[in-house]
């Protein structure tokens, strides 16, 4: 299963979009040849395997990014609780 994250177009050159992923410093390049129309700088793309598949409006992109951020935060909390419990279980199993 793949998860596509909205990426914002920073620049375009010869059918290749340079896109920023989320608000970070991660960039990717995507071919725009599969799109119905060329994207504009500032628009968001859904990219898979190096190809832009869909142009996403800014509101939908931000909603998706907020949801993904929330999911990541929840995952971190679950992971922290799991690791804490595992450490407690390990302490019980192997007394020092």
From TrEMBL:
Protein name from the UniProt record: Hydantoin utilization protein B
InterPro entries (UniProt xref): Hydgase_assmbl_chp_CS, Hydrogenase_HupF/HypC
Organism: Desulfoplanes formicivorans
Highest taxon in the source lineage: Bacteria
Coiled-coil boundaries: none
GO biological process: protein maturation
Family listed: Belongs to the HupF/HypC family.
GO MF annotations, alphabetized: carbon dioxide binding; iron ion binding
Pfam family, one: HupF_HypC
């Amino acid at each position: 299963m793949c998860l596509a994250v909205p990426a914002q177009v920073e620049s375009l050159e010869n059918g290749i979009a340079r896109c920023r992923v989320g608000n970070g410093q991660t960039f990717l390049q995507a071919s725009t040849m599969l799109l119905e129309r060329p994207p504009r700088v500032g628009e968001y793309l859904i990219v898979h395997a190096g190809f832009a598949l869909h142009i996403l409006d800014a509101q939908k992109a931000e909603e998706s990014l907020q949801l993904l951020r929330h999911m990541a935060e929840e995952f971190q909390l679950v992971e922290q609780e799991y690791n804490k419990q595992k450490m407690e279980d390990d302490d019980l199993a192997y007394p020092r």
